[in-house]
Design a protein that fits this description.
The structure is a single chain. The chain folds into 2 domains: about 1-40 and about 85-145, no CATH class; about 50-85, no CATH class. It has a 3-stranded antiparallel sheet. Strands 1-7 form a two-stranded antiparallel ribbon. A two-stranded antiparallel ribbon has the order 5-6. The chain is built from 6 helices and 7 strands. By secondary structure, it is an alpha+beta fold.
């Protein structure tokens, strides 16, 4: 069997957000690499309520402890939800080589640092989210029987 690629993603990605495709020179994100299928970019690690110092050492069943435990559980839930979100800054740091033809408010944006420093948060998030979705798309491969080539 021989693997044969039918469609391989381009390392130059032109995003659609904010009317970029309608400009004379659309901005592009140039990838240095794409994430592996099992590679993720979580914002943090999930935490267990039971592994905290408070539960092990400070919980004594008093009304104040019950209130503190309730607050602790809510805070852990919020942190765990946030931990599962994608860390787009880390993704860009690891996978994006440069940005081309993008500017904002008089600043030319060429690097990952420029991207997150000069773009408004909402714009950076929307473009990064689109780039991440593109980067996660699989190339399409087909197999060809070796006998047909001989």
């Amino acid at each position: 069997m021989i693997l044969k690629s039918l469609r391989q993603k381009s390392r130059d990605f032109t995003f659609k957000s904010f009317g970029n495709m309608e400009t004379d020179t659309p901005a592009r994100i140039v990838f240095s690499r794409f994430p592996l299928p099992d590679e993720a970019y979580p914002r943090g690690d999930r935490k267990s309520v039971l592994d905290s110092d408070f539960v092990r050492n400070g919980f004594d069943n008093s009304p104040q402890s019950v209130k503190t435990l309730t607050d602790h559980i809510i805070n852990m839930m919020v942190e765990n939800i946030a931990a599962e979100k994608t860390d787009y800054v880390r993704f860009f740091d690891e996978c994006v080589e440069r940005i081309e033809d993008l500017g904002y408010d008089g600043n030319e944006i060429k690097t990952v640092d420029d991207f997150f420093l000069h773009l408004p948060g909402e714009a950076a998030f929307a473009i990064a989210q689109e780039a991440y979705a593109y980067a996660r798309e699989s190339d399409v491969f087909t197999a060809q029987d070796k006998k047909k080539l001989d």
